[in-house]
Design a protein that fits this description.
269 residues, alpha/beta, Rossmann fold, 7-stranded mixed β-sheet
Length: 269
């Protein structure tokens, strides 16, 4: 059966960082994946902004989408200005309905960035409505509520990330590296967010690109190490001990319920 997956990230790079590996695996298996950035990222740089940056970041995620074989969309909402309004709730519900999603991915609603928090809130608020026939009448409702899961994060309050499934991504890690390289406005420019604030970034462009990329990839190694028990449960101890990189996801109670066995069927190996 061909699955339909839609992932929401606050900015044009969030989906790629949190779910680029699993998306590449889904796409390679013939499933349909769409990434949606809920803002256009027009303030996420220290030397450029506004429409120029928004266009650049949209072009970058389109390049990244082509690398892993998926669809992408960037909403025309200013970076830092996303709010959980009724109209934005309708927008998220419409996107889920238009995609007729089986699986939805998003941020948890507790996070350092308001756009991340409100992306998670909007997806949760839309969860009960995507199957309601008299909400947002211009799009047909989903036949059933999709399974909704959160990306991993390190925030502890009000409660820490609690993984429901972890996916090995060693076989597609070079594709994820290529996606990161496709987004220099965030991960290579001297005046990119990480180029300014990440400690120890080299001065030369190539060294900076490589340093930031591997720093980000190391986060997937930390996910694999932190949730090694999940990998053992899914892949068996022998294989799990060899897995270097993983992405992990937490089931949201507001979507369709899914057992561990059902999640194992939904997510690629």
């Amino acid at each position: 059966m061909s699955l339909r997956i839609i992932a929401f990230g606050a900015h044009p790079d969030d989906c790629e960082l949190k779910a680029g590996g699993v998306a590449a695996k889904w796409a390679a298996a013939g499933h349909h994946v769409k990434f949606v950035a809920t803002t256009n990222g027009d303030v996420g740089h220290f030397a450029m902004g506004g429409g120029q940056l928004a266009l650049r970041r949209t072009a970058e995620v389109r390049h990244a989408a082509a690398i892993i074989g998926i669809t992408t969309q960037v909403l025309d909402i200013h970076d830092g200005e996303l709010l959980p309004t009724i109209e934005n709730r309708r927008t998220i519900a419409r996107l889920i309905r238009e995609w007729q999603a089986d699986v939805v991915l998003c941020h948890r609603p507790n996070d350092y960035h308001p756009d991340h928090r409100y992306t998670g809130t909007l997806v949760q608020d839309a969860a009960v409505l995507v199957a309601a026939p008299f909400f947002a009448l211009d799009t047909p409702p989903c036949k059933k509520n999709p399974v909704i899961l959160f990306y991993s994060d390190g925030f502890r309050k009000p409660y820490p990330f609690d993984p429901s499934i972890s996916v090995a991504i060693d076989d597609v890690i070079d594709l994820k590296r290529a996606c990161i390289d496709a987004m220099p406005s965030q991960f290579a420019d001297r005046d990119s967010w990480m180029g300014r604030y990440l400690p120890g970034v080299p001065d030369d462009e190539e060294g900076r690109r490589r340093f930031i990329r591997e720093w980000l990839i190391e986060m997937d190694a930390e996910v694999a190490d932190t949730y090694r028990h999940m990998l053992v449960a899914r892949y068996g101890e022998a294989r799990a001990t060899e897995i270097r990189y993983a992405e992990a996801f937490e089931l949201c109670e507001y979507g369709a319920p899914a057992s561990r066995e059902e999640l194992d069927q939904l997510f690629p190996r």
